[in-house]
Design a protein that fits this description.
4 helices; mainly beta; globular; 12% helix; single chain
């Protein structure tokens, strides 16, 4: 069951920046992001799939209820929250908190029988956003504050918003560093968990790579329709774990959202 929560979390996290209804009211001199990244209360619905990387992981199709608020200072999208503590024309420093849904329970798959549960947690830290016209760099430093993994993640994503008539397209690339504590907790196998088919494994730090593409349009029902595709390639310290059966995962989501 927890694997489904992890899938839902990854889809929600990549949805957060794009789920705002838009109207074409800006002047021609404004950049393309101003047409999409609006302020206000948001609601909507979508579906998402993510093939995951754990062994014996069924590909779920997950409904995505969308509810949130995006303001000039404070934003909340489900359990993901951020507060802009400081900003100037191009830079923005934020305080952030987000659930860490990664992990599993024994009943998620037969392969996990005999393993300790990897529990849900909460990450908190800082985010720094640099935006110049249609380019944006988002960087965050987040740590597990509940002591489940004691892990640290440093993540940076570069994207550029482009407009083709009523369609907005944003390709993005990203890097994510996770420390040894994080990898060992979610992908390691402890001595008492080892079996003939699941050898003991101590996780090391990892550097993961991501490519994404979001396609958005405000032409339907005064809201915004978004198609998002994201593929993550995992470091060998994760893909070599006996708990995984691949080195990449693909997520696809389609959503419709609008303002209250």
């Amino acid at each position: 069951m927890k694997l489904r929560y992890a899938t839902l979390a990854s889809i929600i996290a990549t949805t957060f920046c794009f789920s705002a209804a838009a109207k074409d009211t800006q002047s021609p001199n404004d950049n393309n992001r101003q047409h999409i990244e609006k302020y206000g209360f948001i609601y909507g619905l979508g579906i998402g799939v993510n093939n995951g990387i754990y062994k014996d992981y069924d590909l779920p199709v997950i409904p995505l209820p969308i509810i949130g608020y995006r303001g000039e200072k404070f934003s909340a999208f489900g359990p993901f929250v951020s507060y802009h503590a400081w900003q100037n024309e191009s830079l923005k420093l934020s305080l952030k908190a987000a659930p860490r849904f990664g992990g599993f329970e024994q009943d998620d798959a037969d392969f996990f029988n005999g393993m300790d549960e990897r529990k849900l947690s909460i990450d908190a830290g800082l985010g720094l956003t640099y935006q110049q016209n249609d380019w944006k760099v988002d960087t965050s430093i987040m740590r597990d504050i509940l002591g489940k993994s004691d892990g640290l993640e440093i993540k940076s994503t570069l994207g550029k918003m482009m407009r083709f008539g009523p369609v907005f397209i944003e390709p993005s690339v990203g890097l994510s560093y996770v420390d040894a504590n994080h990898v060992d907790y979610y992908y390691g196998v402890r001595a008492h968990e080892a079996t003939n088919s699941r050898h003991q494994y101590d996780g090391k730090s990892a550097l993961n790579k991501t490519l994404g593409l979001s396609v958005m349009t405000p032409i339907f029902f005064n809201g915004i329709t978004t198609l998002g595709i994201e593929n993550t390639w995992y470091d060998s310290s994760i893909s070599d774990s006996p708990l995984t059966d691949g080195d990449s995962s693909l997520s696809v989501r389609i959503m419709f959202s609008k303002f209250f």
